[in-house]
Specification:
Layout: H1 2-10, H2 12-22, H3 36-39, H4 41-61, E1 64-69, E2 75-77, E3 83-88, E4 95-96, E5 101-105, H5 108-165, H6 172-227, E6 229-231, E7 236-239, E8 248-249, E9 257-261, E10 269-273, E11 286-291, E12 294-306, E13 333-339, E14 353-359, H7 363-366, H8 373-407
Helix pairs in contact: 1-4, 2-4, 4-8, 5-6
């Protein structure tokens, strides 16, 4: 309507002034309800053509959309493992900080595993103490075996010396018995030495390795016990959190509730523009938005990201071929709008609906010294008509509460 009024002032009004003062025709006489088209045909035709051209120019180079939302992501409250709730520390709609405990699952099994690992460590420490005591006893056994070996060896040497001096003094059988006794004592010494080495290996290698494995099991048991206490990952507000002691939660089937992050929906707006405006939408474009949740307010924005794919064309591999006709209507170009100034989105509820305009800026192209006259004039027109779209957005910001509360019966 605004475009039509503007174009009529440039076409119909001059045509009427020419008919009135140039040709002397008057309304109600020569210009009647039935002769308006014939008398003002040039102005009306030019007005329609100019209006269509102006609307096309405005909406192409300064795109607008009502598909704008302050989207936000929620965090599902889930334990890493399923279990029965033993204790709940928070309530619905409560604000929490990152790391605050939310609820505790039954941890009897994990506590038993933790206690078993602790007792195993104590058992290994006791085995180490016993092994050290046995090592001291092994030293005494070695000395005892060495003494018996030395005594048997001395006796054998004595008998062999007597036999060497007089063969009839000592029987051969006696020498053989003493030799066997010496060999036996030598074996006892070797066995005592091997027993000591075994004890030393247990103290230095086996028992420390067993203790390290048990400590790892203890740490794992502690981790599993810690998992039974579910904490908030980010700061936010709890929603749909109706958990009570005795409830069973499962990470695959039954979440405990939803956590809405504190910054959710307060960083950017997500807008869906028509595909025909793909070549116009660029990162860095200035934009404006007005939201239902913050009426009578124009929010200065900037385009920070333009998604290079259309969501409507996506598909997943299945066992059936996809007919393109099944994709339905063409999708939109997803654009991310961030406020030019901090705090602009304060007061806009996350998930709120908005209206947004994006404005083409040809300042750099107009600053080029080699630009032609026709292009210079066209770019000036493009930048100028953006004012019309800005006026329309402000009219929408004024009429939005009236349309929502009165005209649509949304009160």
């Amino acid at each position: 309507m605004l475009e039509l009024l503007l174009c009529s002032m440039l076409t119909i009004l001059p045509d009427y002034l020419f008919r009135r003062y140039g040709q002397g025709k008057r309304i109600g006489r020569e210009i009647t309800l039935y002769s308006v088209w014939y008398e003002l045909r040039w102005g009306i035709s030019a007005c329609l053509i100019l209006t269509v051209s102006l609307i096309t120019l405005i909406f192409y180079f300064h795109p607008s959309t009502k598909n704008v939302t302050a989207v936000f992501r929620t965090v599902s409250i889930l334990p890493e493992k399923g279990g029965r709730v033993a204790e709940v520390f928070v309530s619905i709609n409560q604000k929490v900080q990152a790391g605050d405990p939310l609820f505790q699952l039954d941890s009897s099994e994990q506590q038993a595993a933790l206690e078993a690992a602790q007792r195993r460590i104590a058992e290994i420490d006791a085995q180490t103490t016993v092994a050290k005591t046995q090592l001291a006893a092994a030293d005494g056994t070695i000395k005892q075996a060495e003494g018996a070996y030395q005594q048997a060896l001395d006796e054998l040497d004595t008998k062999q010396e007597l036999m060497r001096r007089n063969a009839n003094v000592v029987a051969v059988r006696e020498i053989q018995r003493l030799q066997v006794a010496v060999d036996g004592q030598k074996g006892a010494v070797d066995a005592a030495m091997a027993n000591k080495q075994t004890l030393e290996a247990q103290i230095s290698t086996l028992l420390p390795a067993q203790r390290a494995s048990t400590e790892a099991a203890l740490a794992q048991a502690q981790v599993e016990l810690d998992k039974t206490l579910v904490r908030a990952g980010v700061a936010g507000t709890l929603q749909q959190f109706t958990l009570r002691p005795g409830d069973v939660v499962n990470p695959m089937l039954r979440p405990a509730g939803i956590l809405v992050p504190a910054e959710a929906g307060r960083v950017a707006l997500v807008a869906g523009f028509g595909q025909i405006e793909t070549q116009v939408l660029k990162v860095g474009m200035i934009a404006e938005a007005t939201c239902i949740g913050k009426p009578f307010t124009i929010l200065p924005m900037v385009v920070t990201q333009v998604q290079d794919v259309v969501a409507a064309g996506q598909f997943r591999p299945t066992d059936q071929l996809i007919d393109v006709q099944q994709l339905g209507q063409p999708g939109s170009i997803t654009v991310y709008l961030e406020p030019l100034y901090a705090g602009e989105l304060e007061g806009v509820p996350p998930g709120g609906s908005c209206i947004a305009n994006a404005y083409t800026n040809n300042h750099d192209a107009l600053a080029d010294k080699n630009i032609g006259t026709g292009r210079w004039l066209f770019l000036h027109v493009v930048d100028t008509v953006g004012l019309v779209h800005a006026m329309i957005l402000r009219m929408q910001a004024i009429m939005l509460p009236v349309q929502t509360l009165v005209l649509s019966g949304g009160h």
